[in-house]
Design a protein that fits this description.
- The complex is a heterodimer.
- By secondary structure, chain A is an all-alpha fold.
- Chain A has 6 helices and 2 strands; from the N terminus they run H-H-H-H-H-H-E-E.
- In chain A, helix 3 packs across helix 6 and helix 5 packs across helix 6.
- Chain B has 8 helices and 38 strands.
- In chain B, the strands form 10 sheets. Chain B has a 5-stranded mixed beta sheet with strand order 1-32-33-34-35, with no helix packed on it.
- The longest helix of chain B is centred in the N-terminal third of the chain and has 19 residues.
- Chain B is globular, with a radius of gyration of 23 Å.
- Classes of the chains: A mainly alpha, B mainly beta.
- At the A-B interface, helix 1, helix 3, helix 4 and strand 1 of A face helix 1, strand 28, strand 29 and helix 7 of B.
C-alpha cells in the first residue's frame, strides 16, 4: 500500500465515508502483512455469516486468477449477502448515480469500460470477484470505488450487474455472421428495467429499433 | 422513470462526497512524471547538415512531403503530385506494409518528411502509443519509440483509445500520449528530447488530437468533453517543452485569453466574461469545450483556427445558457494565444454537436468578391462558409438530412432550432437527425484548388435520446443521456461527397453502408481517396465520383489517407487500416452488439460491423508498378 497524502476533511456528512476509507487502508495493510507470514488461507473468522457482509479478510482470499499452483483449491467458500428483491433496482439507480453508466453504458453494453452484458468478466465473474473489481478498481481504467461507496451499495451493484450479464445462451462460443446474433435487447431509452435481458427483439442490423 | 427522484438526490450528495473522495488520490506518481511540468530537457538534435529543409513552414509547401496530419496549414489535404492520376490509378498496388502491433482504432495520419515515414499507434498492445520511423523507399524500420502512458488513461477516453497523429518540425517528432503527455523525439535517432505533462487523467483529461507546430510552438489541446473536463489549447515551446500559453475555452476572459484585440462577429458574442456568464454558477469549470480536432493557420493574418467540443453534461437542462465557448470556432494569435474572434455555431448545444471539425482556409470568389474564408463542415449538418477575418457567417447550408436545426439565421449567426425535439428530463425523443456524432465527426475533408470542391467523408445517422440528471464526480463520465443511433432516411449510414461551397450544393455523392469515418485525400491527378469501415480503400474520379480502384484490406478504415514521394522519386499513397474509433469500437473493443446503448449509443448504428471486420493495425503503402510509373513520367 503506497502512502496517501493527508486528507482535508471539511464536511461532516463525509464522516461515514471517511471511516470506510480508513478501514479500507487498514484492510490492505494488515492483510498484506499477515499473508506474508502465513501463505495458507486463514479460516473464515465468521463462519456463521450474518447475511449482511463478508469480512475484508475473507475477500482478500478470493483469487482473481484461474490458475492454482500445486493444484490446491484456492477459492474460499463464501456466502455473499443474499440479494433482496429490491437489490437489483437499487443497484440500477446507483449504477446511474455513480456514473458507472457513463463508462459501461445503458444496460451495460460497454463503451469506455467493457461490456457487462455478455457473461465475460476479465477479473472473474463470481459475486466476490465483481465486488472486488468495484472496490479495488482495475489497472486499465476502472476507478477504485472502495474509498467512496459503502459496501452495501457495492453489493447492490453486484446484484444489478448479475442481472445485466444474464444474457441468453445458445451455445458455448459466440458466432458472428450476417444472421447472427439473432436478437438484441429492447434499448434502455425505451425500456428501463433492472433485468434487461428479459426483454429482447429481433436484431436490427444498425437500423431503427422496434418500438 | 421511477429512479429519477432518488437519482437526483444522490446527484446532489455527490457534490459533497467528491472533494473528500478525490482530494487524496495522489499517490506519488512515477518520478519522471512528477518532474514533468517543468519538462525534462535533453540536448537538441543537430540538423545543420541536412540538405533538405526541416522547417515546417517550408515543408508544408513541398508536395514531396506530408509533414503534418492535414498536409498544410490551410488543411487542404491536397497534393500537386500527379504521377498517380485518374488514368492509371487502376494499376495501383501495394508497395509495402507495416504492422503497428496495436489493434484498436487507427485514426492517425502517417507523416512523410525527407524520405522517412512516421506513424503512431493508438493506446493498445504491449507498447501503447508507439512511434515508428520507416524508410519510404523500402519500408525498412529505422527506429521506434515507446512512451509509457498510464494504462488507467483507457478508462477516461470516451470514444476509443485513438490518436490522430504526430507533428514534425526542425528534426523533431512531436507525440501526444493518451494520458496527457507531450513528447519530443529526435526524428533521426528516435531519442527522447523532452516530455511535458499537459493533462491529468484524474480530471478525465486525455489527448487524442494530432499536434500542430506553428512558429516554434507545438499546439496541443485536451479531450474529455464527456468527463466534465474544462477544455484548453496549450502552446508548448518546441525546444524546451515549456508551456508558453494556455487558452481555456470556458471561464473568465483572462483565462480564455480574450483581450482588447477580440471582437465577436455578432452582438451576443461580445461582453465581459461570457465564458462565465453563459453558465449556471461554477458550471463552466466542468463545462467541456475541449480541443481535440484540427487547427488551421493563415500566416498572412497570423491567426490559427480551431473548434471546441460540446459543453457538458449532455443533459442540457443542467446548464441553462449559451455555454460559451463550447461548440465554438476560435481565431487566435499563435504568438500569444489571444483570441481575435469566436463564433459559436451551436449555442447551448442539445445533441453533443462538437464543432471540432476542420476549418479549411480557402480564398473564394463569392458574389464577384474575393473572400478570405473558412469552410467548416459542421457537426450539426450545416456547411459553414465563414469570413476568417471577422468570424461572420457568409453561408450555411445543410449537407445531410437535418431535422434538429431548421436553418441558420445569417443576421444573428444563430441556428433556428426545431423546438419540437428539445429534450426534457426522462422523456425519450425519437428520430433526431443528425445523431450525436453529427452529420460529420472528426474525419477530415480535402479541398482541391483544381476542382474547387470539398471532398467530405461523413455519416448519415439519426437517434433516440433520453436525458437523465448526472452528478459530477471528478474523473468519471459526465453525460446524463441514454442514446441509441441508427441509419438515417434511406437506410444507409455513410456518404462520401463533393461539395461546391460557392454554388452551395452537393455535386456528387457515394453512399456507403457504414459511416465514412476515414479522412479524405485529393490530388492534382484528379483522384480522391477514402476508406470504408468494411475494409475497402477507394480511389474515385475527383470530378465525377466514378470509382476507379479499390483495395480490400485486413481491417476497416478510419484513418487518414496521405500521399508523398520517396527518395526514389516515386509517388506513394498511404493509409493505416484498423477499425475502431467511436463508430467502430464495437468491432475492436469489448462492446456487446446486442445492447444498442453501448458506446454512447453508437452501438445501435454499428451492431452489424463485427460481421465485416475486426481490429487491425497495418500501414498500407501503395504505388504504381514500375512499368506504369515510367509510362506516367513519359507523358
Amino acid at each position: 500500500m503506497r502512502p496517501e497524502k493527508p486528507m482535508n476533511v471539511t464536511v461532516g456528512a463525509g464522516l461515514l465515508l471517511l471511516v470506510t476509507l480508513f478501514s479500507a487502508q487498514a484492510f490492505g495493510q494488515d492483510k498484506a502483512n499477515a499473508d506474508t507470514n502465513n501463505p495458507q488461507p486463514p479460516p473464515p473468522t465468521d463462519s456463521s455469516n450474518t447475511g449482511t457482509t463478508i469480512s475484508p479478510a475473507q475477500l482478500l482470499n478470493v483469487p482473481v486468477s484461474g490458475l492454482t499452483p500445486g493444484a490446491v483449491e484456492a477459492r474460499p467458500k463464501l456466502n455473499p449477502p443474499p440479494a433482496d428483491e429490491k437489490a437489483a433496482q437499487r443497484g440500477m439507480d446507483d449504477f446511474a448515480s455513480f456514473n458507472c453508466v457513463g463508462c459501461h453504458m445503458g444496460n451495460g453494453g460497454g463503451g469506455m469500460g467493457p461490456a457487462l452484458s455478455n457473461r465475460a468478466f476479465i477479473y472473474g465473474s463470481s459475486p466476490e470477484n465483481i465486488f472486488l473489481s468495484i472496490y479495488q478498481g482495475r489497472p486499465n481504467g476502472m476507478p477504485a470505488w472502495g474509498t467512496v461507496l459503502p459496501e452495501d451499495t457495492i453489493w447492490d451493484l453486484v446484484a444489478y450487474i448479475k442481472n445485466l450479464s444474464d444474457a441468453p445462451v445458445s451455445q458455448w462460443g459466440t458466432t458472428t455472421s450476417s444472421t447472427s446474433p439473432a436478437i438484441e435487447q429492447v434499448p434502455s431509452e425505451i425500456k428501463a428495467v433492472p433485468n434487461p435481458w428479459q426483454y429482447t427483439q429481433k436484431f436490427a442490423d444498425g437500423q431503427k429499433p422496434q418500438e | 422513470m421511477s429512479g429519477t427522484r432518488r437519482l437526483t438526490g444522490l446527484a446532489g450528495s455527490i457534490l459533497i462526497i467528491a472533494p473528500l473522495a478525490f482530494a487524496s488520490p495522489a499517490w506519488p506518481q512515477d518520478s519522471t512524471q512528477t518532474a514533468a511540468p517543468e519538462a525534462n530537457t535533453a540536448s537538441s538534435p543537430q540538423n545543420t547538415t541536412q540538405k533538405e529543409s526541416s522547417d515546417i513552414a517550408a515543408l508544408v509547401k513541398d508536395d514531396n512531403q506530408w509533414p503534418m496530419a492535414a498536409k498544410d496549414y490551410a488543411n487542404t489535404r491536397f497534393s500537386h503530385l500527379d504521377e498517380i492520376n485518374k488514368d492509371n490509378v487502376s494499376q495501383l498496388q501495394m508497395a509495402w506494409s507495416f504492422s503497428l502491433g496495436a489493434t484498436r482504432g487507427q485514426e492517425a495520419a502517417p507523416l512523410a518528411v525527407n524520405g522517412t515515414v512516421y506513424v503512431v499507434a493508438p493506446y493498445a498492445g504491449p507498447h501503447p502509443n508507439q512511434v515508428f520511423a520507416l524508410d519510404i523507399a523500402n519500408g525498412d524500420l529505422k527506429w521506434s519509440y515507446a512512451p509509457k502512458p498510464d494504462p488507467a488513461a483507457q478508462g477516461v477516453a470516451c470514444c476509443d483509445v485513438v490518436t490522430r497523429g504526430l507533428a514534425y518540425d526542425k528534426g523533431k517528432i512531436f507525440l501526444n500520449t493518451l494520458d496527457g503527455f507531450s513528447v519530443a523525439i529526435d526524428a533521426n535517432t528516435g531519442k527522447e528530447l523532452w516530455h511535458t505533462k499537459l493533462g491529468d487523467i484524474n480530471k478525465g483529461e486525455t489527448i487524442t488530437m494530432a499536434p500542430v507546430v506553428v512558429k516554434g510552438k507545438v499546439l496541443v489541446g485536451n479531450a474529455g468533453g464527456e468527463m466534465g473536463v474544462r477544455g484548453w489549447l496549450a502552446a508548448v515551446d518546441e525546444e524546451t517543452g515549456k508551456i508558453v500559453w494556455r487558452a481555456y475555452s470556458t471561464g473568465p476572459d483572462d483565462e480564455v485569453l480574450i483581450g482588447k484585440d477580440y471582437k465577436g462577429p455578432y452582438d451576443w458574442l461580445n461582453g465581459k466574461d461570457l465564458g462565465v456568464k453563459t453558465w449556471p454558477p461554477d458550471k463552466w469549470k466542468i463545462g467541456g469545450g475541449t480541443v481535440w480536432g484540427w487547427i488551421s493557420y493563415d500566416p498572412d493574418l497570423n491567426l490559427i483556427y480551431y473548434g471546441t467540443s460540446n459543453p457538458g453534461a449532455w443533459n442540457h437542462e443542467q446548464r441553462p445558457g449559451d455555454n460559451l465557448f463550447g461548440s465554438t470556432i476560435f481565431a487566435r494569435n499563435p504568438d500569444t494565444g489571444m483570441a481575435k474572434w469566436a463564433y459559436q455555431p451551436d449555442p447551448h448545444d442539445l445533441w453533443d454537436y462538437d464543432e471540432i471539425n476542420e476549418a479549411v482556409v480557402v480564398d473564394l470568389t463569392i458574389d464577384n468578391q474575393l473572400r478570405k474564408v473558412l469552410i467548416h463542415p459542421g457537426r450539426d449538418g450545416f456547411m459553414y462558409v465563414i469570413d476568417r477575418t471577422t468570424g461572420k457567417v457568409i453561408s450555411a447550408d445543410a449537407y445531410d438530412y437535418v431535422n434538429s436545426i431548421k436553418s441558420v439565421d445569417l443576421n444573428t449567426g444563430r441556428p433556428v432550432l426545431n423546438d419540437a425535439l428539445t429534450p426534457s428530463l426522462g422523456k425519450t425523443v425519437r428520430n433526431v437527425c443528425p445523431a450525436a456524432p453529427g452529420a460529420k465527426d472528426w474525419q477530415p475533408s480535402a479541398w482541391s484548388p483544381k476542382t474547387k470542391l470539398l471532398y467530405v467523408p461523413h455519416q448519415h445517422l439519426c437517434m433516440n435520446f433520453k436525458t437523465s440528471n448526472v452528478g459530477y464526480i471528478e474523473g468519471t463520465p459526465y453525460v446524463g443521456a441514454d442514446v441509441d443511433m441508427y441509419a438515417g432516411p434511406g437506410g444507409y449510414r455513410g456518404e462520401f461527397m463533393a461539395w461546391d461551397p460557392v454554388q452551395r450544393k452537393k455535386v456528387w455523392s457515394i453512399k456507403e453502408k457504414f459511416p465514412v469515418w476515414s479522412g479524405a485525400l485529393v490530388t492534382a491527378g484528379d483522384v480522391a481517396f477514402y476508406g470504408t469501415m468494411d475494409r475497402w480503400f477507394k480511389a474515385v474520379d475527383a470530378n465525377s465520383g466514378e470509382e476507379l480502384w479499390k483495395f480490400r484490406a485486413g481491417s476497416g478504415f478510419i484513418g487518414q489517407p496521405v500521399t508523398f514521394s520517396g527518395s526514389d522519386g516515386t509517388q506513394y499513397v498511404a493509409i493505416i487500416s484498423g477499425v475502431g474509433g467511436w463508430s467502430g469500437a464495437v468491432a475492436a473493443a469489448e462492446i456487446d452488439p446486442r445492447v444498442r446503448n453501448g458506446a454512447l449509443g453508437f452501438t445501435g448504428a454499428m451492431q452489424d460491423l463485427p460481421a465485416s471486420t475486426v481490429g487491425g493495425a497495418t500501414l498500407n503503402v501503395f504505388a504504381l508498378p514500375k512499368n506504369q510509373k515510367k509510362a506516367a513520367s513519359a507523358q
